[in-house]
Amino acid sequence: EVVLPFGLQSEVDAHLHAFLDQKKMMIPEMPRPNSSESLATDYGNYEKPETVMQNSLARERVLRPRSLQLRSKQQQWVDSPEGQKMVEFRKTLPAYKEKDALLKAISENQVIVVSGETGCGKTTQLPQYILESEIEAARGATCSIICTQPRRISAISVSERVAAERGEQIGESVGYKVRLEGMRGRDTRLLFCTTGVLLRRLLVDRSLKGVTHVVVDEIHERGMNEDFLLIVLKELLPRRPDLKLILMSATLNAELFSSYFGGAPAMHIPGFTYPVRAHFLEDLLETTGYRLTAYNQIDDYGEEKTWKMQKQAQFKKRKSQISSAVEDALEAADFKGYNFRTRDSMSCWSPDSIGFNLIENVLCHIVKGERPGAVLVFMTGWDDINSLKNQLEAHPLLGDLNKVLLLACHGSMASSEQRLIFDRPPEGVRKIVLATNMAETSITINDVVFVVDCGKAKETSYDALNNTPCLLPSWISKAAARQRRGRAGRVMPGECYHLYPRCVYDAFADYQQPELLRTPLQSLCLQIKSLRLGSISEFLSRALQPPEALSVQNAVEYLKIIGALDDNENLTALGKNLSMLPVEPKLGKMLILGAIFNCLDPVMTVVAGLSVRDPFLMPFDKKDLAESAKSKFSGRDCSDHLTLIRAYNGWKEAERTQSGYEYCWKNFLSAQTLKAMDSMRKQFFFLLKEASLIDNIEGCSKLSYDDHLIRAIICAGLFPGICSVVNKEKSITLKTMEDGQVLLYSSSVNGNVPRIPFPWLVFNEKIKVNSVFLRDSTAVSDSVLLLFGDKVSSGGFDGHLKMLGGYLEFFMKPTIAYTYLSLKRELDELIQNK
Ligand code: CDP
Ligand code: MG
């Protein structure tokens, strides 16, 4: 049995933030004179690390340039006791047995594909093996290995782990570079970076001069950036015959990648997992008498809490729901009846849906059982996890803190919480972790013996025909289900409860759809243009699995409408600026306008909120209270975005007097989300500065602003996301051009008002479920639409909008196509003369 030192991981996590902050202070990224030059300098420096050193005293202090004596330094470390321990640990990883075979394959082929179970040592070991063998072959001074990661956090933590394994400081032979942050020195030969960073380097250095190895990690995720990078690299390889490409994947679908690269050899690292017994829904019923427990438990639960009559009646109803749902599930052909049915918020299970009770029952079964071991529950998303956690905390057994340690695990949790997930709980306490599919491959909890798999994951999809993105929990793939199951067999034989019948599993797709096929392509198309990769549609047709022509056409059309591309598909000045900002083009446009109109502070709040997530919490049992708390911020604005700004500013104010948490509690706000927004705002600020769109903090930090102007900027960004408002006697009818009548989420402040005193709503997102629903919206007037909505796409809306469209062209088209500066002047004048 191999016990892996997970303490190390959590220690790294614990210090990560403090460490990063410290580094940021010590190593400012170079000041940039202007945007186009900045990229060149950045990556130019990469080629000549010495210049970096000369230019930056601060950097020198931290990184202490040394001559290239990697080999002797390494020997000293290996001879020390800690070094010995590390060497021994590294030998226990499954990748170690394949080391020679892997290196041989790399030396004999230009491209190889490596697959292996999560945790077998692909990311931390393979790039290191390459580095070591290069040093061995006296090429240490000239090699340059780049390993890409899909996420910032993994690029940073992996590079730190590898540096620690080599007994070095980060920035010696191993470094990292993510957007806005980096640690590398003149000796850095192995660089972990995000996929985006490598793509941006290609912007100024098409042939990756000086790079000897590119390792693309986590390709099984089929992220959009990775698929994109593969197209570029495929084209580059013939021009750079000496460049080695290594693709790494956690699952066994190597053939696809191997044939994309003309039959590149695929290697597999055999893992060491224990067998995991799979239980499907029908097994649960047959072998554990689940059905009986399901009934009894609900009654027990009801009595124990001495619920009121009304509640009891509710439980009775739920009980019959369960029985019919399970029945349905067994009939199985139509699996909709057993459902993770959605109530008003489309994207999550309804909190009192049977899915939750099923999970509750399975967890009781495990906790009452004899076998020790932690439980990992795969849920669809953050909101589900929270609702389920609330439900379980109220349960007599599962909520008992002496018996159960209940933890949540999702992308944006605090690092202190993160540590608990990896720690072993006290004797006699069962650890239950509720996680998103992030726990499938990105993180590993070693003591997991039981896995509960709801079979779904929240996934974006894209309906090209209606040009509508959808975000729905959808069935996972067979590969993902296998991966989830495998998580139970790290330390001993495990059990996996799949909460769906086997025949549903059989109907799963083999692999998840690649992101390129299920997301709107606007940002990607912008990037293709800024990388000067030629015709967008021609370029994308060379992808591993090319997207639909219609999706591409929609994206190009959209970019033309917002003025990022001209009629000939060339990048405009606005387009260039937008491609510098790591947010969707529409949000980038808001930031640019915010900078121009000197009201960046509130605009950054809106953009941060839209790119992180809604900080307003809507707990199902306190929905009314939460809604009324929210409406306190909204006043009569009819704008979710202005509401968000007020809530955020209030929190900032409360933070100043140390009462941030109290404020959040009182107002049903997520402190965590607000903090994430805060750090995102800081990033925006630096980026805009980097792109020379602002020169100092003045005008950005002031809290007073004009609501009408913000409304206008929101309109400019969200256009053509617009619907018309008709106030009727008892209701409000909303219509968009493409969908006809649409509805609002009840969480929107506009969902609960008797009338909306403006003729238009601009919205950020529409999502198709049964009907089309609009998320956050802001009401705008004719004149705002006239001035700030861009030209209306051909085809027209209705007569009114067509007329507006005519005006819009008249006012806006030449300026937008040209540059935003003249727009500022023109609009400034208009506003001044109002
Ligand atoms: O990439 P892959 O999933 O194959 O594995 P890896 O990330 O290279 O990790 C290999 C092993 O190193 C893991 O099983 C962990 O035990 C250990 N590790 C660690 O202790 N701390 C880290 N920050 C990363 C990995
Ligand atoms: Mg990995």
TrEMBL record:
Family from the record: Belongs to the DExH box helicase family.
EC number: 3.6.4.13
Catalytic activities: ATP + H2O = ADP + phosphate + H(+)
Residue span(s) of domain Helicase ATP-binding: 103-270
Keyword flag ATP-binding: yes
GO CC terms in record: nucleus
Keyword annotations of the record: ATP-binding, Helicase, Hydrolase, Nucleotide-binding, RNA-binding
Enzymatic class: hydrolase
Location of this fragment in the whole protein: 209 to 1042 of 1199
One function term, GO molecular function aspect: ATP binding
Domain of life, source organism: Eukaryota
Domain Helicase C-terminal as annotated: residue spans: 358-532
Keyword Phosphoprotein: no
Protein name as annotated: RNA helicase
